Amino acid sequence: MLPDVRAALHATGLFRIMQPRWAGGLELGHPVLVDVASTLARGCPSTAWIYANMAIHAAMVGYFEPAAQRDIWAPSVDTLVCMSVIWRDGKSRRVPGGYRLSGNWPFCSGISNSEWHMVAAMVEPDATMDRPEARLFLLPADDYAVHDNWHVMGLAGSDSRDVACEDVFVPEYRTLADSATQGREAPGNAINHGAVYRIPMQAAAPPTMASVGLGAAQGILELFVEEASGRTARYTGRGMAGLQSIQIAVAEASARLDTARLVMRGSGEEALAIAVAGGVPDLETRLRWRRNAAFGTALAREAVDILHRHIGGGGLYENKPLARLWRDFHVVTAHIAFNLDVAGSLYGRHMLGLAVNIVP
Question: Which of 59, 217, 252, 308 would be 18's cystine partner, CB 3.0–4.6 Å?
Answer without folding.
Answer: 59
